[in-house]
Amino acid sequence: MAHIKLHYYPYDLQLEHTFTVAVHSRTTTPVMLIELEYDGIIGYGEAAMPPYLGESQASAAEFYKKLDLNQFSDPFRMEEILDYVDKTAEKNYAAKAGIDIALHDLVGKMLGKPWHKIWGYSSENTPVTSFTIGIDSPEIVKEKTLKAAPYKMLKAKVGLDNDKEMISTIRSVTGTPICVDANQGWRDKYEALDEILWLESQGVVFVEQPLPKEQIEDIAWLTAHSPLPIIADEALQRLEDVAALKGIYSGINVKLMKATGMREAHKMLQLAKALGMKTMLGCMTETSCAISAATQMSSLADWADLDGNLLITNDIFEGVKVLDGKMQLNDKAGIGITKKAE
Ligand code: MG
Q: Is 26 exposed, middle or buried (0-12, 13-18, 19+ CB in 10 A)?
């Protein structure tokens, strides 16, 4: 009888530009590439671990050493397998996501279908993706904005001391809708509201994580007074966090690396919709592996921010594409990727 075999490899993603947001700056992102092998079929997964979130290639390797996936002889028992993975140790969200994505890829390949079809989503219902412009000098912001011309939505990182300069610089080049992400960088709810009113006049469509996640009452006040939707990102991790955010935020940003993978991220999007909240599907710096996995469920997202693979120079997978700014699914079984020849 066949059994599931786990292989994992550290890999460093090279960013095309130094990426600066309100709390940090970086030029590389460590990931762990996962292969789950069963009966001659390989499912691919990825754990992306930007250092500020606390996971690393070492912590992921330590977690994977604890797993005994060889005990499972039926990959279709996904709930049982992923419950076992989740209960093996606390946290390790991205490391768990790597296994979850690889198992989805494996099972999809065994069924001969991509996950968007297994779940029943129509491939034309994918959202446009925003293209992220990190905090930078006007010259670089202008250059990045010009390069982002095919995208139908731009995501501007703000929250340092040059918010208006960032937005005005983008607006000097294009009228494309913008969303902003303050990464908890603002402090005062009244100043935040003033800034949001100005952002609205600049064609901004929503605001992500304006204030520190601990300022719950201030955020609820801001959401009640803001003409633009206020989206939670740092304020939530997993499924258990979603319901408590209703009434405090307008919606949530779901990411596979926060949510331990596709199984739970899919449930989070469904729950948020059932609660009448806005939904956003985001990412870390990732290869086309994790981006293609997230795109399988992107019909559930009001907005997508799935550009992580477009910001790196050494993607080793071919997967979903962006055409005229919109996510394009393909018919490849599993999560829709092939590994590039080495
Ligand atoms: Mg964010």
A: middle
Task: Tell me, in angstroms, the distance from the centre of ligand 1 to residue 253's CA.
Answer: 7
pLDDT of the residue at 29: 94
Q: What residues in the chain have per-residue pLDDT under 70? A: 22-23, 342
Say how many Å lie between the CA of residue 328 and the centre of ligand 1.
Answer: 23
Is the Cβ–Cβ distance between 269 and 301 less than 8 Å? Answer: yes
CA 161 to ligand 1 centroid distance, Å: 18
Q: How far is the CA of 277 from the centre of ligand 1 (A)?
A: 17
Decide if 258 contacts 55 (C-beta within 8 A): no
pLDDT at 341: 84
Distance 232 CA to ligand 1 centre (A): 8
Distance CA 144, CA 140 (A): 6
Please give the pLDDT value at position 229.
98
Centre of ligand 1 to C-alpha 210, Å, is: 10
- Ligand 1 center to residue 176 CA distance, Å? 20
DSSP state of 265: H
DSSP 135: S
Q: Quick one: pLDDT at residue 271? A: 98
- Tell me, in angstroms, the distance from the centre of ligand 1 to residue 2's CA: 41
Q: Return the pLDDT at 56.
A: 97
Q: Is 50 left (phi over 0), alpha (psi -120 to 50) or beta?
A: beta
Place of tokens 């009448």: 276
pLDDT of residue 124: 96
Taking the centre of ligand 1 as the mean of its atom positions, its distance from the CA of residue 112, in whole angstroms, is 34
Residues 308, 156: Cα–Cα separation, whole Å: 14
Tell me the average pLDDT of the chain.
96
What is the whole-number distance in angstroms between the Cα of residue 77 and the centre of ligand 1? 33
pLDDT given at position 143: 95
pLDDT for 284: 95
Chain centre to alpha carbon of residue 4: 27
The predicted pLDDT at position 197 comes to 98
